[in-house]
Each structure stands twice: as structure tokens, then as C-alpha cells.
Amino acid sequence: MQQELSEYLENAFSLTDTDLTYGDGLTGSARLSGALSTFLNAYFRPHRPVLSDHLFIGAGVMSLLDQVVSVLADPGDGVLISVPYYPGFDPCITLHNGVVPVGAQVPLDKMLTLGELDYLEDALRAATRRGVSVKAVLLCNPHNPLARCYPREVVEAYCQFCERHGLHLLADEVFALSVFAPHGATPPPQPFYSVLALDADRLGVNPARLHVLYGMSKDFLANGLRAAVLVSQANPDVLQSLLPAAPFMVVASPTAVLWATLLEDKSFLTAFLAENSRRLFAAYERTAAWLAFHGIPHAPASAGHFLLADFRPVLVDVARYGAALTIHAGHTLEERERALATHLLARGVAVMPGTACHLTEGGWFRLTFALREEQMRVAFRRIEDALGWDNWQPRRSDIGPHL
Asked: Does the keyword Glycosyltransferase apply (predicted)?
């Protein structure tokens, strides 16, 4: 959708004299705050209406996460997060703050279920025994890299877990509207439920512990424009504590104007989000069909821009792939995984190894499919050539008549 979005923004872009100054201040323009509150109320279905006063705008979700962690935790404290997780969280938690990511190793079949909370309990107890004081839990929903939404009851359980242990919940919901549903899927994929939609009082949760992060980078495919928002509806102290850092993560006026313009155009916004979801599903189906043709399993996806593929059938077949990848039977799966990633990168295809997401079992890769079809076909062909595979020739039956 990049071409459509860039054409729209180019035609709609208009600056005023005030936009060439600091405008309304360093914490976000009043126009963008108003547009965001209206947008969040329409699409995230909050239990309590989101007001402009609940928002803090900054230059990207990672910048805001970095600053929120600095407010909630001291050096040596911990942030609890289920494994696997997006590796970009590590520097946000650690680099400037000296805070420790506390990973809860969760089997893949337990992820996004109520059973995940048992592993969080275990990881929290283990961290306490090591002398790490955990101050917050990070929930990525829709999940990166598993590319699915958390069921509502699991999101509620996360909130209650935090309340039970006196922790803050940081919900990264940056892929909230990049959700796609396979036609006729049984059971249907989980819809997206925002932390904002939950009734904290009914759950017995202090809403001051709940904070949501959202940005322009994923659903609006504009990570280069650097704009995001923290929503904290019941904790003005957290928002106030971010003020000293505001000059270091201010959103540029042109970006603020572009995002506000897009959010205010209800007709274009509705059509854009719907078409984006349709194209994401088409791209996912195409990639899933290509993987199936080559005998590579993957975890079913219904949200986000990627899927998690299991390349162990390649990595265990040393007789076939050993010479190309320079691997032998003595190498661990993690070593073979790195060899495959290096082999593909040298041939012009970048994939994310699962160990980068802290998976303890080697062989998994996160494959991003949110590219134009012609770009994906180049990637497919390069991987096929690199591994000596037959070339996939898609048929309509492979990816469905709805495409």
C-alpha cells in the first residue's frame, strides 16, 4: 500500500507557518492529539473514552517504550516478557536504562493461551530469587513474531497478573489493525482486543497500571516518519514524568500534519485499512502456498506483516544441504540456523532467525511477506536458487479464488 499512501499524502500535504515552529509545544500537536483520540475511540473500542489528556506523542514506539521503562524502573530492575519476542525490545529496555529483560520461556503451543501465564509466574519467581525486582510486564498484541492476536480472556489474565503482583502492563499494540481473516477458517482467528477495551473495574485491576503503545509504523506502513502515542488513561504521573524527555523524541511537524490529515479523512482511512488487510491476507496466502510447496511448515498467521516458518526440514538434512550451508552433523541447530541466514543474506534475502527472538530451539525464521508481489517473487526465486529447490509456479487453487 505504499504507493497509494504516498500519493495520498503528497496530494493532501499542507503546512502552515505555525508548523515551521514548535507549534503547540514539544509533547505533540493539539490537532494530532485530537485526531488520535477520535481514531482510538473508533477503532480500539475503549471501555472508557480516550481523551487528548490521556496521550503522550513521541517519535516512534521504541522511543516511547525506552522512556516509559525509564520512568517505571531503575537500573537493575526487570521487565517481564514472554519468549519469543521481537528483538527490538531488548535495546529499548536495556540500552539507556540498565533495566533487565526477564524472558519467560513459553512453549510455542502454550503461547497466546491462559497457560502462558503459568510461565510468567515461574519467570517472576526465578527473577525474584536472583534479586531482580520486576516492575512491569510487556505484552505484544498482536504478537511479534507469532503473528496472531491474544484472546480477550488472556489479555484480561495479563492485567490481573499485573495487579496481583503490583506490576505495570505495557501493551504494544502497534499491529492492531493489520489483522486479516482467512475465508471460512475453522475456527476463525482471534480478533484484536485492546487493553483499552477491557473493564478494569470488573477485572479488579487498577487502571493506573495499564498503558498502551501505538504508532504510525505498521498499520500505516510509515516507520520512516517516526510517530507514536502512549495512552495512559488513569496515570497522569507517568505522563508528567515523560515531560523532561519530550525534547528528545518530539515528532516533526510535517509528520504530525501527515498523520493527522490521514486520521481525519474518514472515507480514505476506512478504505485504506480495509484494502491493507485484504492485501496482507493475499500476501500471507501466497507465502504459505510457497512454503507448503517446498515442505516447510509454518505457524498459522492472522495479524502482522510476517509469519514464523520452521526450516528444520532443511537444517537436519545435512546430506542434501551440508555443502551449500557449510554445516555438518556436529553443528547444533542454532549454528545451522545462523549458517542458513548468512547463506541467504549473501544471496540478497534477509530473514530473521528465531534465536534473534530468543527462541531456544533453532530452525525457526521470521519471514516478512508484507511486500509487493513482484518483490516476493524475487525473494522466493533467490531462496530456491540458494537451496537448489524447484521453482514454484503458483496456481489459483494454491492461494484461493478470492485473491
From this structure: no
C-alpha gyration radius of the chain: 22
* Cα angle, residue 119 at apex, residues 118 and 125 outer, rounded to 5°: 95
Please report, in angstroms and rounded to a whole number, the separation of the first and last CA atoms in the chain: 16
Statement to judge: residues 57 and 178 lie in one domain = yes
Prediction pTM value: 0.93
Cell readout for 156 is: 484480561
The single residue listed with the C-alpha cell 545451522 is 336
Strands (E), 304-362: 306-310, 352-353
CA dist 230 and 225 (Å) reads 17
Give yes or no: residues 292 and 235 share one domain.
Answer: no
Return d(Cα 325, Cα 335) in angstroms, integer. Answer: 11
Quote the pLDDT of residue 144: 97
Q: Residue 368's domain is classified under what CATH number?
A: 3.90.1150.10
Are 325 and 368 within one domain? yes
- For residue 49, what are the domain limits? 2-264
Beta strand extents in 286-395 (DSSP E only): 298-299, 306-310, 352-353, 364-368
User: Looking at the chain, how many residues does it have?
Assistant: 403
The ranges of the chain with pLDDT < 70 are 182-187, 396-403
100/132 Cα distance (integer angstroms): 8
Inside any domain, residue 398: no
Geometric angle at alpha carbon 264, from 261 and 270, rounded to 5°: 110
Task: Count the Cβ atoms, other than its own, within 10 Å of residue 89.
Answer: 23
CA dist 131 and 319 (Å) reads 47
pLDDT at 401: 40
At 284 the pLDDT is: 95
Q: How many domains does the chain have?
A: 2
Same domain for 332 and 204?
Answer: no
CA–CA distance, 380 with 378 (Å, rounded to integer):
5
Asked whether residue 34 is assigned to any structural domain, the reply reads yes
Distances (CA, A) of 241 to 67, 69, 303: 9, 11, 33
Task: With respect to residue 230, please indicate whether it lies within any of the assigned structural domains.
Answer: yes
Inter-residue contact 196 to 44 (CB < 8 Å): yes
What's the pLDDT score for residue 184? 58
278 and 248, same domain (yes or no):
no
Q: In which residue are the cell numbers 503458483 written?
A: 394
